[in-house]
Amino acid sequence: MSAEATDPGAHTRKRGRPRIDLRRLGRAALLGPVARDRLPDAIGHVAEAHRAHHPDADLTILRRAYVLAESSHRGQMRKSGEPYITHPLAVTLILAELGAETTTLTASLLHDTVEDTEVTLDQVREHFGDEVCYLVDGVTKLEKVDYGAAAEPETFRKMLVATGNDVRVMSIKLADRLHNMRTLGVMRPEKQARIAKVTRDVLIPLAERLGVQALKTELEDLVFAILHPEEYEGTRALIAEAESGQDPLAEIAEAVRATLRETGISAEVLIRPRHFVSVHRVRGKRGELRGTDFGRLLVLVAEDADCYAVLGELHTCFTPVISEFKDFIAVPKFNLYQSLHTAVVGPEGAVAEVLIRTHRMHKVAEAGVVALGNPYAQDGTTAAQHDEPADGERADPTRPGWLSRLLQWQESATDPDTFWTTLRDDLAQDGEITVFGAEGGTLGLPAGASCVDAAYARYGDAAHGCIGARVNGRLATLGTVLTDGDTVQLLLAQDASSGPSPEWLDHARTPAARIAIAGWLEAHPEGAQGHPKSRPVPLRAPDRPADDMTSGPARGGERDAGVTVGVPGAPVRLAGCCTPVPPDDVIGFTVRGGAVTVHRRGCAAVARMRALGRAAVDARWNDTGAWSRPADYRVTLVAESFGRPRLLADLTEAIATADAAIVAATVEPPSEQRVRHTYTLQLPDAAGLPGLMRAMRDVPGVYDVSRAQQPAAAR
C-alpha cells in the first residue's frame, strides 16, 4: 500500500473548515530542489508558519539547528528514497502549523540527531541550551542492543517520565509519529499493522489527553486506513457521494448567520466536516446516515459571554435537541477542551450539530498543550530561571491528573511487559472525574473509578487496610463506583495486618490500585485465604441446638422469663424472632398450649398477630433484681461489616470480653465486600446489652450493630 493510498487527505474535501490543515504543504514545496545551493530555503516554510503564530520570534536559533541537522543527516536516506532531512523538517513544520514556540521547533529539528548521527547530547546542550537538550533526550529511543525486546516499552516509559517534566516532549513525539504514519506505505504490510496498532493503543490516546485534536484526528484516519481498509474505503465512498450532492448544512448555516446578524452578535459560522473515523462512528451508532451527519456547524465568537448569547439565540429561533446539549466551557474536559455543544432542527427538519466557542478555545481545541506555548516560561524567562516550588517539583499547569497517576504507577511496574500492558489498559480509559475528600482536598480519577481506586490514590500502600467508605455521607462498599463531584471518606482499619481481598481486583480500575493489590496478594497468599468464604459459616455452641436462634427459648413460666403477663399462671416465653430484653417495651400473645409469647412492640410478628385477630396480652418486666440472674436472657444481634481477615475472631473476642455466651451465629455470604453476621447471645445481665453493642461496633470493619427483626410465623 502506497503512502498516498493510506493518506485520507488524498481525497479532496470540498467544504472549508478552520481546522489546522497539516497536509497543506507537500514534500516538494517543503524541501524545494535537492541541490545544495537551495537547502537554506527549506527552512523558510517552517519560518513562515512559525511567524504566523509568533511574529516576533527570533529565527536565528532555528537556522542554526537546521544547519546542524542537515549536515549530520547528510547522506542518510529514508525508506521512501527521500533525503532524511525531509523528516525532521516535516515534523517541525507540523508543530509550527500548530503554533509551537521556538524551543520546541528547535528540538524537533534535532530530534533524531543523537539517535541516528554522531551528534551527542553534550554538543546539543553546548550549542542550544539545557531545554533543547532535555527535549531531544526525551524523544531519543533506547537501543535494542542494550534492551532487546524491552526497548520499545522502556523507550515509552522514558518518554513519559520526560513528559511529566515537560509536555513538549510528547508533542514532538506525536508530530514525529504523524509524519511516519503518512509515509508508512513503503513498509511491509505486517510492519505497517504493528506500528498502526501501537499508534492506536498508545499515541492516539495520548494525543487525546493532551488535547491535540489536529494530530489525533489525522492519526485516527491513517490507522483506520491500515487496520480496517474495507471499512475505510466504504466510509470514503460515502463521503464522496455526500460531497457530490447539495450540502444540507449550507442552508442551516446561512439561517444561523442571518439569525446572529439580526441580533447584532458578531460571529463566524463555518461548516466543519467530520473526519473519516468520526463518520464511521456515527454510521455505526445510527445505522443510516443523514445528510447532516457528514459535518457540524462551528460558530466562533470573541468572548466567553458571546458563546452563551449565541446558544440562547439558537435555542430561541430554532427547535433545540436538548439531549445533545453539553457545556464544556463551565466544566472543561480534562484535556483543556472548551466548547458548547448543541443540536438544532433546521428549516427543512434536518438536525444539525453545533459547536460554539471562542477563537482562543478553538486554537486550544485543535492544538491542545502545543497552543499554550512554553508553559514553563513567563515574561520571556525560561524554565530554568523560575523558582522551584517548595516540594521541588516543577510548576506545570499542563500536568493533569492522569499524567501524575501514570508517572506514579509506572514506578511499581518494573517488568517491561507489565508496564506495556498496563499502559495500554490505562490509556484505553476515557474521561476523568474529580472527587472531594471529607477532610479536604481533591482527587482526580478516571471515569468509572471505585472507592478502591480512591483509597490507593489517597493513601498508597496504606490503603491495604481500607475497610470501607462513606460516599456523600452514606456508608458504601469499596466497590462503589464514584461519580464526578462525590465526597469520599475512606475508613482505615487499626489492625496493621489487614490487607486487601482478591475481590478488590474486580473493583480496581486504576493501574496503581491493581498493581498494589496484586503485589500484596502475591506476598501474602495466606491473607487472601483468610477472607470470608462464599457460603454461610454456622457457629454453634455444642450444648445448644442450632434452631435455638429462631424458635426462642422456652422458659417455662412467668418467674423464669422475668416477665409478668395478663394471663395468670400461663407459661411465658420470650420470642426468638426479636429476642426482647429489659427494658424493651413488650407485649404478649397467647399461642398454642395456652403459653404467652412476649415480643418487642416493634417486632414485625406483632403486626401479623393483630392482622390475624389475635388478642394482645399485657406484659411488663419484673423488678430489676430479676434481670441479673445468669442465663436468663437471650438476644439476637446483627453486625454489618466490611470483609477482612480475622474479622470473625475479633467479633467473637469482643462478645466474650462482655461476658456474653454465643448460642448460635451465622455469617452470610459476602456481597461487594459487605458481610452480615447474626449472633444469638446469652446475657448474664440485660443491662449490659448497650455496652456489648458498643464493643462490637468498635471492632475495626464493623459499621453497624442492631437488634434482629427476624420474621416469625404466628402460632
Quick overview of this protein structure:
The chain has 715 residues and is of the alpha+beta class.
Distance between the termini: 85 Å
Number of separate strands: 22
**Total number of helices:** 29
Q: What is the molecular shape?
A: elongated
Beta-strand fraction estimate = 15-25%
Helix content: 40-55%
Task: Tell me what you see in this structure.
With 715 residues, this protein is an alpha+beta fold. It is 42% helix and 16% strand. It has 29 helices and 22 strands. Strands 1, 2, 3, 4, 5 and 6 form a six-stranded mixed beta sheet that branches. A five-stranded mixed beta sheet has the order 8-7-11-9-10, with helices on one face. The chain has a five-stranded antiparallel beta sheet with strand order 12-20-21-19-22, covered by helices on one side. α5 packs across α8 and α13 (213-227) packs across α14 (229-244). It is elongated. The relative contact order is 0.06. The model is unreliable at 1-40, 379-398, 529-560, 624-631 and 711-715 (pLDDT under 50).
SSE arrangement:
Elements: H1 27-31, H2 39-53, H3 60-73, H4 86-98, H5 102-109, H6 113-116, H7 121-128, H8 130-139, H9 144-147, H10 151-165, H11 168-182, H12 189-209, H13 213-227, H14 229-244, H15 248-262, E1 268-273, H16 276-286, E2 295-301, H17 304-317, E3 319-320, E4 326-327, E5 340-345, E6 351-358, H18 359-367, H19 401-410, H20 416-427, E7 432-437, E8 442-446, H21 451-459, E9 466-471, E10 474-476, E11 487-492, H22 504-507, H23 511-523, H24 525-529, E12 537-540, H25 548-551, H26 558-561, E13 563-565, E14 572-574, E15 586-590, E16 596-600, H27 604-611, E17 616-617, E18 619-621, E19 633-642, H28 647-657, E20 661-667, E21 674-683, H29 689-697, E22 702-707
Parallel strand pairs: 2-6, 7-11, 14-16
Antiparallel strand pairs: 1-2, 3-5, 4-5, 5-6, 7-8, 9-10, 9-11, 12-20, 13-18, 15-16, 15-17, 19-21, 19-22, 20-21
Helix pairs in contact: 2-4, 3-5, 4-5, 4-11, 5-8, 7-8, 8-10, 8-11, 10-19, 11-12, 11-13, 12-13, 13-14, 14-16, 19-23
